[in-house]
User: Which sequence fits this backbone?
């Protein structure tokens, strides 16, 4: 039955619409755009229905929408499983089935159908976001994503070293304030793990204001910590700034050398 | 009557004062500077009179000032409508009438005269700010604005990709804290949309302090979110830093090649 | 009497110690270092004695120290007035008297002697800081300061444009929240000037937490404002990063071309 | 006895495992990795046991673990003292004994054994972190660390100048708010040192929210301070961004010129 030329033609057409690699046009194919919209709507729905004031009285409506979305995802999943062999890089349907994204798709369908899962289903639904990224990946953002990834990758060591210094400073600041204010504010600084909460809020300059030193020495140390925090933010920013500068320069140079290939891609 | 040479001369002179393109001098023309001052005074007035303690007892004074400003804007509007045909790029008065800035001018006049509009008039008055930007645009800031615009435009993809990652991280952080603290602090983390308010305040390092986690796991997740927020700030900063570096380098190179044209402009 | 060779020799020696331009050694002269230490001690003293818990019971001690410092500054002032004519760039003692720094010195002496000025004297005392900067200026930090000043100066237009955009966004955010939350929280958002306080705290990511929106729409707008604030911070950071890169590159190139002059300076 | 070839061979082998300079492999030696893990476990233990809710009822367990760790550190210390002479740069055991890191090791052992030291032992335990950095230093992060250190060192003057400006602005902002709100909020702004606490929190954009101005003038000054704070953060970020760009460029150039030496190191 699979040898029928009509079905083969249909499968080939569908594969070119579903698989971003096979799609010859620019950006995403119309079908993939529609799927992305459905996925985004599903994520929005999943987020909104956690709010009790919105869910109340609309449970059946949310349930029906979930079922509809689940059916659409199931259809798409089966279509991908059917057409995947058109892509030469996929050797068999079994290989496709065990690929990361196929399993993520399967998970998304299970989530959509598990209406009675309650809150636990929410985090699983975030898996859907990965699918959107996958769809977008080979489309319009590929060069931009590669630049950012390249910039971060080329400076992994520098960023890691500054992260290690960050942890050392964090623990040092927390220990200082634990020693200075541990007896005065036992609830906030009574142990190093507790003081670390304050140290994180200060070093990242978030400053919730739920915990802050009240003694003179504690405030001096907090001031030094806050200033150190700014320097700690400046270091990775500076590293990434120079990394981006290099990554984009290289991307441009490549573009100049291979204008035809990249023109098509961009 | 329009063919009289005296009126033509007057119109030409007025056009050269009103239209920044026709103005031969450096920066803004004296008339446009005066108009800009009036516009800024009008905006300041609009802002100040929303404060009840200032408005009280001075309602008639504010009303009179509004009327005066409205009359001045009407005069300017009519003058622009009369002189617009001097600019070769404007084909007819009708075309000028439907241009974005002419409609903004008309709106500003309507706002000034609608004394009884109340608060609703305030946001309309911000339209006036667009006019100031327009006046300044072709004057002294043109090169600087072009550099900034060029820098942002040339990295649109990279900024968009980092924005998408930002949204994903935002929703992920909100979902995590909704799952961890949703039952303990239902008012603050009882749903993902509610937890998103906390996530925005943390990722942007604003940290109002009205909402913050109180459990150990919640605080660990909040700490990771705050650190991620800093990295998320570092990425666009790094992208823009390299973009500015390129934009200004190019502007300088252009300057070297075409020194006469730009010297006049600068 | 001034023609006596002994006095002339003394004046010349003193001038070489007091005037950073005439001083032939590296950095600051020993006398200027001593003066800088006295100035810094004076500033520290001025700051500390504003604290009631420290001042109480030590009024006479603080008064005596102030008088001593005042006498030292008077001596220095007279010494500078006497020796200033040794510097060729100073034409006469009268010209020196009316120079910015000489007037600042005179002010500092008046402050030190005005023991009963109370709090008003504090801000005047900050004038002393300018003197320290002046002393340091021609010494060790000259190249670094020039690099920073050059970087800021070369991008004045870009920074000004981003500042103007900042003000527009600030007023826009304040107006939005005034319209949305003005009726619900009249104390915090009851007028645009009041809402501006919130907008400043949010756009700069300070986030005191004394004022924050409580409605859904207000929080969405606040989130957008916070994200915009980060972008607004990224723009000047990016501009300055590329400016520093250029300024330091130029300083190095100059160094290569004129190695002898700068080696002495560095 | 030391001349026995078996002992010599053992000592040589142990030295190559303990001393990162002698270790011929890439990264850290297996023994040093094990030691690093034990050190990290010891630090984690020291931090956790400050929390009363965790320590309670587990005192004997913590004490036993401390003793075990102390014994391991003592063993390592003696092993290092025995093998140190294998490294040609170490002239004698006495010299090694008085080196910074050997004394830090000795301190760490004393800390581990001083079970009854109480809280005071915590800060001493942070000395252990230095050891981890030392172990890691000559291993994988050496190039990255050198880049960061080189970037900071090459801009020491610029960073110092911006720090001095930062202190001047800090004191200026504190003085302004002391004068404006000192009488209204004596607890928060009653003296310059007290107002400095607010100024630090605002300039670093931490914004705890425990102290904030309530008058109109105070809020205007606070807004200016917050904006100045952002500029103050942008300056060192910009300096470091350009410094990293240069440091990494130079590291790459060196790499090109001396490919063999660095390939081994990287």
Assistant:
């Amino acid at each position: 039955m699979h040898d029928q030329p009509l079905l083969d033609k249909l499968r080939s057409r569908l594969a070119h619409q579903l698989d971003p690699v096979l799609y010859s046009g620019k950006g995403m194919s119309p079908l993939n755009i529609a799927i992305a919209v459905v996925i985004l709507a599903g994520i929005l729905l999943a987020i909104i229905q956690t709010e009790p004031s919105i869910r109340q009285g609309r449970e059946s409506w949310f349930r029906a929408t979930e079922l509809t979305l689940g059916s659409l995802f199931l259809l798409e999943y089966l279509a991908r499983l059917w057409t995947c062999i058109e892509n030469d890089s996929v050797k068999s349907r079994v290989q496709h089935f065990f690929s990361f994204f196929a399993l993520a798709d399967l998970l998304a369908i299970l989530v959509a159908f598990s209406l009675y899962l309650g809150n636990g289903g929410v985090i699983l639904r975030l898996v859907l976001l990965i699918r959107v990224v996958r769809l977008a990946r080979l489309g319009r953002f590929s060069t931009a994503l590669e630049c950012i990834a390249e910039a971060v990758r080329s400076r992994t060591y520098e960023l890691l070293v500054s992260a290690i210094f960050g942890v050392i400073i964090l623990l040092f600041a927390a220990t200082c304030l634990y020693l200075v204010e541990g007896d005065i504010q036992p609830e906030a600084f009574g142990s190093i793990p507790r003081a670390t909460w304050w140290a994180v809020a200060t070093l990242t300059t978030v400053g919730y204001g739920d915990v802050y030193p009240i003694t003179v020495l504690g405030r001096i140390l907090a001031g030094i910590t806050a200033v150190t925090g700014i320097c700690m933010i400046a270091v990775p920013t500076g590293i990434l700034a120079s990394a981006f500068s290099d990554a984009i320069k290289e991307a441009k140079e490549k573009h100049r050398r291979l204008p035809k290939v990249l023109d098509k891609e961009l």
